[in-house]
Amino acid sequence: MTTTITTQPNQSLLDVILEKYGTLEAGMAVATANNVPISYIPLSGTLLTIPDSLLMDENNVQQLKKQGIVPGTVAMPLLTCSLVLRPVLTAVPTVTGNPHVIGYYQMELRATDDFFHAYAIAANYTGLNRVLYETEERYVAGLAPENALPLTVVPMPEKRIPYRLPWTVGLGYMIVFPNLSEPDATITFSDTEGNDAFFAPVIVLDNTTQEVLDVLCGRLEVEVVAANVDAVTVKLTRTHPPIHISDFANYAMTWTHGATGGTPDPADPGNTNITVLTLPSGTHMLGLHTTYIYTHTTPITAFPASGCSVVIQIQ
C-alpha cells in the first residue's frame, strides 16, 4: 500500500522521509518509489508516493508533530522582482508660429528622465505610431478626428518621435490622442529581450500658438511586499501628475493587462488606487488606462483616454 504526501517549502526528499518515517532508513525505498535520486529536491507542493510498509520510528514522528516541526533544510533562494521597461514621454514644440497662419503644429514626443529600460531598446518600432487629433469643438460635436503618422522615421533607441499635424478648423484647444484599441498603442517601445510597454498620452495644444498645454497620462509604481521561492507579492500604485486644464481635471483610472485581478492593500483597503498582486516567475506587463470626464452639458461624457504600462521581471 502507498499514500501520498505534499511537499512543503524548503523540503528535500530526505526532509520528507524524516517527516513521514522519523528515520532516514527508508530513503532508498522512497526514492525508488518516486523514480528520483536520493538527493532530489522537489518543488513546494509536489506530490510524492510514500510506501506504507517501511520501517518507521514512531517516537520521532510524534515528537516532530508535537513540536510543530516540519523538516526543511534546503536553503532555496527567494524570488526577486525588478523593473524591466517603463516608457515615459513628454511633448515639446519644435517650431514657433500660429498654427492658423503656418498651417500646422509641429512637435516631438521625447523620453523624460523617468524613462527606464534594463535592456537595450530594439532598433525599430513594432507599430506605426499613428496619432489622432481634432479641436475641442469638433470632438464635442462627435466629428471624426484627423490622423497623422510621424513626420520622419527615427530609430527607436533615440526615444523621440516627431510629428507635423496639419491645422484643422474648429474652436478650442487641439487634442492629440492615441487609439488604445490598436495592438501597439502609440507609443509602444520594445527591448532586445522581446518585452513591450507603452506610453500613450493625451496631449493638449494651444489654439493660436505651438504651446503644449498639458501631457496627460497616469503613472504606475511597483513595490515588493513579500517573496518566497514560488512567487512575489507586489503593491501596484497608480497616480496622475497634476492637471493644468480644468476640463480634464476629473478622471477615472482602470487597471489593465496584468494589473487586473488584484486584491486591496491590507494596510489601506479603501484605497482603490492600490492593488496587491501575487505573481509567479516570469515577465509581466502591468497596465493603466485613464478616462477624462467631460463635465460640461454636451452629448459626450468623456475626452479620449490615455494609457501606460510597465514590465517587471520576477526570477
Characterise the protein shown here.
This protein has 315 residues and is mostly beta strands. The protein folds into 2 domains: 2-66; 81-314, no CATH class. It contains 5 helices and 20 strands. It has helices spanning 13-21, 27-34, 58-66, 99-102, 136-140; strands spanning 2-6, 47-51, 81-86, 89-93, 104-111, 116-117, 131-135, 146-148, 160-166, 174-177, 188-190, 196-200, 202-205, 212-216, 219-227, 231-239, 251-257, 274-280, 282-292, 306-314. The strands form 5 sheets. Strands 3, 6, 11, 12, 17, 19 and 20 form a 7-stranded antiparallel sheet that branches. Helix 1 (13-21) crosses helix 3 (58-66). The relative contact order is 0.15.
Shape designation: elongated
Which structural class best describes the helix and strand composition? mainly beta
Q: How many domains is the backbone divided into?
A: 2
Round the Cα radius of gyration to an integer and report it.
28 Å
DSSP strand count: 20
Sheet having the most strands: 7 strands, antiparallel
Instruction: Determine the fraction of residues in helical runs and give it as a percent range.
Output: 10-25%
**What value does the average pLDDT take?**
91
Continuous helix count: 5
How far the N terminus sits from the C terminus, by CA atoms, comes to 39 Å
- Secondary-structure element sequence? EHHEHEEHEEEHEEEEEEEEEEEEE
Q: Into which percentage range does the β-strand content fall?
A: 35-45%
The residue ranges in which pLDDT falls below 50 over 5 or more consecutive positions are: none
